[in-house]
Amino acid sequence: MQAKNSNLIFNKDFSQLNTLLEENYSDSIKFILVDQNTHDHCILTLDQIGVSQLEDAEILLVPDGEGSKSPEIAISLWQALMSHNADRHAVLINLGGGMVTDLGGFIASTYKRGIDFINIPTSLLAMVDASIGGKTGINLDGVKNQVGTFNDPVATFLNTDFLQTLPQREFMSGWAEVYKHALIDNGSLFEEIQKIESPSKEVITTDLLKRIIAVKQQVVQSDPFEKSERQILNLGHTIGHAVETAVLGSDHELLHGEAVAAGIVIENFIAEEKNLLDNNIRKNIQEKLKSWYPDVFKLEFRGEALTEIALADKKNTNQNIRCSLLEEPGKVKWGVEVNSEDIESAIKQWNAI
Predict the structure, then answer these.
(1) How many domains is the chain built from?
(2) Is 226 a catalytic residue?
(3) Does residue 2 lie in a domain region?
(4) Could you say which of 119, 234, 258, 267 is catalytic?
(5) Is 88 a catalytic residue?
(6) What is the 3-state secondary structure (H, E, C) of the chain?
(7) What's the CATH code of the domain at 229?
(8) I need a surface site. Which of 100, 132, 135, 206 has the fewest CB within 10 A?
C-alpha cells in the first residue's frame, strides 16, 4: 500500500478549483457536503467567485456537530449518493470543518470502494489538522473515530478568509491544534506561538498556516499509516479524546480542541511523573493554556471514567494504554505505556489546579 500525495493549494479565488474540476470531472456528477453553518456562510462564497463547475452540484446537508460523524448519517449519505446515481467517477467536495472533512472523506473512501474527493476546510481545526494527513472516520457507540480509512483527497484548498466565518470558540478549538503542532516542531514555532497573549483570526496568515501544516506534513510523509513516528501527532489526544467523550452530550460538552488542551496538560502531568518532562516547562505550558481556555480548567474529571474510555483508544496494543508524551518542545516520545494509576494521579492534579 502506498500513500498518495495530497495537493495543498493556497488560493483565495478558487480559480484552480474550477480548472481542476473542468479538466478532470467535467462529465462527473459533483456533490458538495456541508453542515448547516457552512451551507449558510461558506457555500455562497463559491457561487460569488464563479466556480462554474459547481453550478449544478448536488448539496448534501448534515446537521452541525460531532454527532453527524455517526453510522446513521454515513448510511444516509451513501443512500443519497445512490439515489443520485453516483458512479465511481463522481467527485465529493467537502466544504466545512473537521467533522465535514472527516465524514466526507470516509464516505468518499467507502462508497463503491472509493470515489475522488476534494477538501475545502473552513475552520482552523480542519485547516491545520483534520483535512491534512489522509485520516477519515466516524464515531461508534460514542467513541471517536473508531471506523475509518487512510485516504488522501485529490486536493485540499486552503483559504484563510473562511476563518472570518468562525465563532471565536470554534477558532480557539483549532488554536489548540496549532499549539500542539508548535510543541512538536523542532524550530522556532513554539517560541513564537508561546508569546501570543490573545489569539485572533488575523494572526493566521497564509505564511503561518503553511508553517503549521508543514510540521504535520513532515511527520506524515515519514509514516503515512501511523505505524511509528506519526504517533507523535497524538500528543494530548489519548486523554483529550477521553475527556471529549466523557462530556459528550452533557451540559459541559467540549469542542475537540478544548479537550485536546486539557489532554495536553493532563498528559504533561504523566510525563513529569515519568521523569520525561521538566517541571518548569510543564508549568509554563499549563499557564499558557489556562490563559487561553479558562472555562476548560474549571471542569473536574474522574480518573476511572477517563481510564475506561482511554482503553478503547485505537492506538493501544494488547489492552495497554499508549500515549505520546512531551519531553521538551520539539521532542515527543511516542508509544509510552500508561496505566490507570498514572491517569488517576494526573487527574487529581488537574482537579487541583
Answers:
(1) 2
(2) yes
(3) no
(4) 234
(5) no
(6) CCCCCCEEEECCCCHHHHHHHHHHHCCCCEEEEEEHHHHHHCHHHHHHCCCHHHCCCEEEEECCCHHHCCHHHHHHHHHHHHHCCCCCCCEEEEEECHHHHHHHHHHHHHHHHCCEEEEEECCHHHHHHHCCCCEEEEEECCEEEEEEEECCCCEEEECHHHHHHCCHHHHHHHHHHHHHHHHHCCCCHHHHHHCCCCCCHHHCCHHHHHHHHHHHHHHHHHCCCCCCHHHHHHCCHHHHHHHHHHCCCCCCCCCHHHHHHHHHHHHHHHHHHCCCCCHHHHHHHHHHHHHHCCCHHHCCCCHHHHHHHHCCCCCCECCEEEEEEEEECCEEEEEEEECHHHHHHHHHHHHCC
(7) 1.20.1090.10
(8) 206
Residue 156 included in any domain: yes
**Active site residue: 241, 258, 268, 322, which one?**
241
Question: What single letter denotes the amino acid at residue 259?
Answer: A
Q: Which of 148, 165, 182 is the last residue of a domain?
A: 165
Instruction: Please confirm, yes or no, whether 351 is among the known catalytic residues.
Output: no
pLDDT in tens, 61-85: 999 999 999 999 999 999 999 999 9
Highest mean pLDDT among 187-191, 280-284, 315-319: 280-284
Domain that holds residue 160: 7-165
Span 17-28, average pLDDT: 94
Question: 244 with 259: CB under 8 angstroms?
Answer: yes
